[in-house]
Amino acid sequence: MALHPEIAAVTDRILERSKARRAAYLDLIRRELESGNDRPKLGCANLAHAYAGTDEQRDRMKDGRAMNIGIVTAYNDMLSAHATYYRYPEQMKVWALEVGATAQVAGGVPAMCDGVTQGYQGMELSLFSRDTIALSTAVSLSHRVFEGAALLGICDKIVPGLLMGALRFGHLPMVLVPGGPMRSGLPNKEKAAVRERYAEGKASREELLEAEIAAYHGKGTCTFYGTANSNQMMMEAMGLHVPGAAFANPGTKLRQELTRTAVHRLTEIGWNGDDYRPIGHIVDERAVVNAAIALLSTGGSTNHLIHLPAIARSAGIIIDWEDFDRLSRAVPLLTRVYPNGSADVNGFEDAGGPGFVIRELLGAGLMHGDTLTFAKEGMAAYGRKPAIEGDALVWHDHPEQSGDDSIVRTVANPFSPEGGFRMVHGNMGRACIKVSAVDPDRWVIEAPARVFSDQQAVQDAFKAGELDRDVVVVVRFQGPRANGMPELHKLTPPLGVLQNKGFRVALVTDGRMSGASGKVPAAIHLSPEALGGGPIGKLRDGDIVRLDAEAGVLEALVDPAEWAARDLAVAPPAAIGTGRELFAMLRNHASEAELGGSAMLAEAGL
């Protein structure tokens, strides 16, 4: 099947825009390969330090002929998703020895949980934890004693951060190793209903806590299709997993064999063999487009409208929101997974999962099928489903039809002919809106603004009944430079309640909403942000704001002369406490959201 012309055109647009940066990047990794991928050239004292912490692997390391795999791990047991990694390094060392290689933990990276910090001060560290993870990954791989790397991470900022750091070592072959989702608990729809009842004062704290614990009950990622699980869909589409590794549950034979295969396969694609596949070559312009298409066709997390541009820039590639908008209009919506439907990711996997979606997209010419991937067979391998037969890991073709067409559908019978994203712009700047979960009669909202500078003030106004009307809730000074761009997920229940009452409601913010943003129309990531002169700083209570996702419009309906003459609102003072003051440098130098919201990349000229 020939590639869809719009996907080809967007890819060409990215190729042309990225030409000089990508050429410089490829030159960098060529030079890094030539100068830094030969352990025998290192000094003996340097090598002795690197080998001193190991026993059974030392003799094999000394001869320098087999791959030494650097494991970069995001393990901690405060995050359910990352608690699964506890035994992975020792298992991976055994699996490396099975094929004549060695493995060492190169380093650890922090992994914070937005679910724990949501609505509290710690969330203001969240976005910049991604830069911290990238820097930690670079430190981990800087010792130059590894010929390949395995990246152990799964959740929101962790996978983007690992990739941003790892791509600066693009001469090394690498694999992303997920841990899988927890098994299904309390259905997401029931959990959301308890949250909304609590927001209205109709459920007690005890009831809410019991519901939340019933939903988040074991090891593995949360089961809704938020940022963490959108990460896994994108890694499949970029060819950075063992095919089908995204949603196998922890503690299963299938999960173990997928990880074992990742180690074995990594040793086959080293620089000194005939199938060299460095990560910097796998992550090219086509792979980035494939990731965007996978995200859009499944109604994935809006956070990746920041993360994917940042990942791409680390590999010398520039993608912007116009590219996402154009791709979204060309790609059908093939899944309904919570918060865009009632099923969770386990239901998604059972109905066909990422492999079914990728098979459909490839077959319809809606995804690049000719990219270099971790799998020897190329992108087609990611359209198949793994299984255990006897003791062997095998892959099968998916059935022609979905296992449940209320969750996953074919290209011939999509939920929508278009994907789940729109870019909106106007006299307030450029913003993103996820429409896959929004009823089409809510795609256009025109109502008076009520302006706030923090989400707690919104919740207080809601509880006081001040928002019981048609309203565009505006929350500004929430961008990367203002306060680190925390997610505003705690606004979802009260805004949902207002919408349920029949009011025409929307959110406009220069902050993030969440991978779990859902039924309330939300224009988010508004750029330029309020701090530093963004036009959102000119809005006043009562101004009529028009949000039109269909036409791609976000406008303050204010006389242009008056709009031009207005002063900007004064920013609140920078907050301290919970370590936020330590991230001032990252806030002060952060790029706009559309450029990735990264101080590290901005300062590096990427």
Ordered list of secondary-structure elements with their pairings:
Blueprint: H1 5-36, H2 44-51, H3 58-63, E1 68-73, H4 80-83, H5 88-98, E2 102-108, H6 114-117, H7 126-141, E3 148-152, H8 158-166, E4 174-177, H9 188-199, H10 205-215, H11 227-238, H12 253-266, H13 279-282, H14 285-297, H15 304-314, H16 321-330, H17 345-351, H18 353-363, E5 384-389, E6 392-397, E7 421-426, E8 429-434, E9 444-452, H19 455-463, E10 471-475, H20 480-483, H21 492-500, E11 505-509, E12 522-527, E13 544-548, E14 553-556, H22 560-565, H23 584-588, H24 599-604
Helix pairs in contact: 1-16, 5-12, 7-8, 8-15, 9-10, 9-21, 11-14
Please characterize this protein's 3D structure.
With 606 residues, the chain is α/β, with parallel strands linked by helices. It folds into three domains: 359 residues, no CATH class; 27 residues, no CATH class; 152 residues, 3-Layer(bba) Sandwich (Glucose Oxidase, domain 1). Helix content is 39%, strand content 13%. Strand 13 and strand 14 form a beta hairpin. The protein is globular, with a radius of gyration of 24 Å. The model has no long low-confidence stretch (mean pLDDT 94).
